[in-house]
Amino acid sequence: MNAEHIAQARQVMSETVDKTKMYVDMEQSKNYAEFRPRYSDEMFKAIVDYCKETNPTLNLAVDVGCGPGMSTIGFANDDDGDDDDDDDDDDDDDDDDDDDDDDDDNDDDNGDERWLNRSSALTSVRPRSHAHQRTFPTASSRSATLTNFRSSRPELLISSAQANLSTLCHRKIVVAVLVVVVVVVVVVVVVVVVVVVVAVVMVILMAVIVVLVLEVVVVAAVLVLVLVVVVVAVVVVTVVVVVEVVVVVVVVVVIVVVIVVVVVVVLVVVVVVVVVVLHVVVAAVALIVVVVKAGAVV
C-alpha cells in the first residue's frame, strides 16, 4: 500500500469523520447516507483501515463502481444489529443476551470481512444505477447488506466519502476562484501599470516637446530682436555718418566760399587801391609836368 495514499486517507478521515453529520433525512434514506465518489484500491484500503481503527463499530459496505478498482463506501453504525440477528432472536427466544451479543459481534466481523473482500467486489462489476439505489456484487451479499442497513437505527450517520469529495470539490472551486481572482488582479495591475507608465511617458514626452518648442521660440525671438537692434543701429550709424559728412562738406564749402569771397574782396580792394594810387601818381606826375612846364615858361 502506498504510504502517500495512507497518509492522505488518514488526513481526510481525521478531518471529516468526527465532523460530518447526516446529509439526508434518516427516515427517507433508510437510515444511511449514500454518495458515490470513486477511489483507487490503495485509497479505499487506507480509508477502510483507518475507519476500522478509529471506529470499530462501523459497518462498512462496498458499492461497486463502473470499472475495475473503482468503488464507493457507505458507513452505518451497527448499534442495533441486522435483520439476521433479529430473525435469530425470534427463532431462539430461549437464548440470553450474551448469546445475542456474541451473534452481533460475529455478524459484524462477517460483515466487515465480506465487504472488505476486494476480489469478490472487483470480479463482478455492475453498471451504476440510480443515485439512491445500491447495487452489490452478489445476491446474497446484496440482500444481507440491505437487510442490515434497513434494520439499523444510527443516531449519527457518517459518509466520509461524501465529505471528502465535497471538501475536495469545494477546495478545487476555491482554488479555481482564487486562481481566477489572482489572474484577474494580476492582469488588472499589469494593465494599470502599463497605462500609468504609458501616460507618464506621454506626459514626459509632451513636456520635453513643449520645452523644446519654447526654447526654439525664445531663441528665434532673441535672434530676431538682435537682428532688429543691429539693423536699427546700422541705420542710425549710417544716418549719423551721412549727416556728419554732409555737415562737414557744407562747412568746408562755406569756408571755401568765405575764403574765396574774402580773397576776391581783398583783390578788389587792392585793385581799387592800385588804381587809385596810379591815378594819384599820374595826376601828380601830370601836375609836376605842368608845373615844370609852367616854370619853364616863366
From TrEMBL:
GO function term, MF aspect, one: methyltransferase activity
Positions of transmembrane segments: 173-206, 212-238, 245-270, 276-296
Region called Disordered, residue ranges: 72-143
GO biological process, any: methylation
Compositionally skewed regions (Acidic residues) per UniProt: 77-111
Alphabetic keyword roster: Membrane, Methyltransferase, Transferase, Transmembrane, Transmembrane helix
Keyword Coiled coil (UniProt): no
PANTHER family: METHYLTRANSF_11 DOMAIN-CONTAINING PROTEIN, METHYLTRANSFERASE TYPE 11 DOMAIN-CONTAINING PROTEIN
Protein's name according to its UniProt entry: Uncharacterized protein
